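Task 17 of the worksheet. Students: predict the tertiary structure of the chain below and write it out as structure tokens. Keep your answer in the requested format; marks are given for formatting as well as content.
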Amino acid sequence: MIQGDSGIGKSSLVDVLAGLVAPAYFRATIDGRSLAFEDYGALARRGAYVSQSARPWHAHVSECLRWAAPQADDETMHRALVAVGLGRRVLDDGAGLATALDDASSRFSGGELQRLMLAQVLLRRPFLAVLDEAMGALDAASELELLSMLKRELPQTILLVVSHRTGVVEGADQCLNIGHDFVATVFRRPFPLPRAQEG
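Model answer:
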């Protein structure tokens, strides 16, 4: 989990960790050997990256899901939709997996589209999933529920999550907090209790 005030640089950090932007200084090791950013970026770009503004560009639900997992059959896609809380929504539509995403009559909300993007991550089963405010359109309880599900269903995946909600940190194994002075602190479970607000 990565947390910090708005504008502190969380998304810029995530762009580096997702292998999209080369930083001025980079140091990483894998199996005891140094890893150049170019090599790290090549690895990271094979993972999944979902930002808050990410929206599917596909015509139908099935096309969106098969983009992430071309070999997925209907049953596998249905299971992913159920896991992210869209199973009933898609089944009730009548068109099922053929439900249109670019049709105003479908009326997928921002939260439902974010859930659909998470279904892609579930189906793809990447070694690294970077989720930058990827559940910002959902309430805190739904975000925590989805994070718990992802951890359960993707035990081999490194989940790197940016969230502005302090309560969601309980779903994390580690938390990187970037303070207003740009000092970064890493907490591991158990996390310290939040300090009481003054005034």
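Marker's comment: The chain is about 35% helix and 15% strand. The chain has one domain: 2-188.
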